[in-house]
Amino acid sequence: MAGCIGVNGRSGTSSSSPPVADLNITPASINFGSVAEGATAHQSVSITNTGTASARITNVSILGSGFSVQGIAVPLTLEPGQDASFTAEFTPGSTGSLAGTISLTTTATDTPMLISVFGKGIVTSLSVTPASTDFGGVVLGNEVKKQIEIQATGTASVQITKVATSGSGFSLSGLSVPLTLSPGSTATFAATFAPSAAGSDSGEISITSNAADSPLTIGLSGQGEKRVVSLSVTPPKLTFGATAVGKSSSKDVVLKSTGNSNVDISAVSISGSGFSVSGAGKGTTLGPGQSITLAVKFDPSKQGSATGTVKVMSNITDSPTEIGLAGLAGEAIESNDVSPVTVGLQWNPSTTANVIGYYVYRGTQAGTYSKISAVVSATSYVDSSVQAISNTIYYYVVTAVNSNGVESGFSNEAVVTIPSP
């Protein structure tokens, strides 16, 4: 018997998956948070080919205001296992919440790849009041402080990180950093100018922050002045004229600080019979421009001329300041003892053409006169306004006046003494 034996079976076969391009992107969404208008926030994005075939990125597009990408050029091929990165940016051009999408077109299976992006545009702004500060003149050795206010005027908080001052003699105090100002809030500090030399100085305060207008600068200026201690006296001399014994008269003297520094009065003294002074003494201080009044009294106890001096001791360089005093004491003439006292004057007529009259002047000391008449057409005058005090001396002069109102110089002086009753 003949036969065959066969074995049935399938021949061996081999199978494998085709290559696949698969891209993974990190992060899949980006929230830039709050970003000041005009500023830029950055976020790195990583792309990795996790597949078994090459992946080709052919296009990158952006949807949404203020969003952009940097650092990627297309087309770009990534082999299996390769990665690449680029930077997503947010530069808000307006305030408020913004959203967008970064889209990558690729040859991978999950194209297009989308990255959601979010951000909020805010305003970080810092204002200052005043914008600049002028300290004016400051005496050497002194200092002047001025208040400055800063305010967060935007829609977001301002973080102040650094404060610096430049310029000779300028400094600031009362502002510690870091400092955060919420929207609308303020902070104040003091700027100080303490010059070290005479002359003009300038500088600035620089405030560094996250505000869009950082650094904020505040201009400073000032003038260093040499110390001047000065005292004026008005009037520089007192003349009391005729005063009856047993009577008194008073006159005021004004002391004024006319320099740029304090006048310290350490003492006020007076000499001369019949004179006294009140109104200031040891410990009186006059600031620049301030004044004080001294009251000087003449109270004679005997007839005759009297002189004296007020001395003001102070810290001015030419101290003491002296005020001359003069007075004339006489005996009062009782009206029932004598006729009213008058003085009669006569003079020669002027030879100048166009003269229409004369003015009469009188004084109680030689060389100092006051007008006591209207225009006198005659060449004589009776003065009935003299004081009835014996031994009082009066000094008289006259001037000629023409039709244009022009006066001549003084005539020769006439001297009259009131006699005793």
Give your account of this protein's structure.
- The protein has 421 residues and is mostly beta strands.
- It folds into 4 domains: 100 residues, Immunoglobulin-like, CATH 2.60.40; 100 residues, Immunoglobulins (Immunoglobulin-like), CATH 2.60.40.10; 100 residues, Sandwich (Immunoglobulin-like), CATH 2.60.40; 75 residues, Immunoglobulins (Immunoglobulin-like, Sandwich), CATH 2.60.40.10.
- Helices cover 0% and strands 56% of the residues.
- It contains no helices and 33 strands.
- The strands form 8 sheets. Strands 2-9-8-4-6 form a 5-stranded mixed beta sheet, with no helix packed on it. A 5-stranded mixed beta sheet has the order 11-18-17-13-15, with no helix packed on it.
By secondary-structure content and strand pairing, the structural class works out as: mainly beta
Got a strand count? 33
Low-confidence stretches: 1-14
Q: According to CATH, what is the topology of the largest domain?
A: Immunoglobulin-like
- Please report which band the strand proportion falls in: under 5%, 5-15%, 15-25%, 25-35%, 35-45% or over 45%: over 45%
* Terminal Cα span: 203 Å
Q: In the residues, how many domains can be counted?
A: 4
The biggest beta sheet is recorded as: 5 strands, mixed
Radius of gyration: 50 Å
Overall pLDDT level: 89
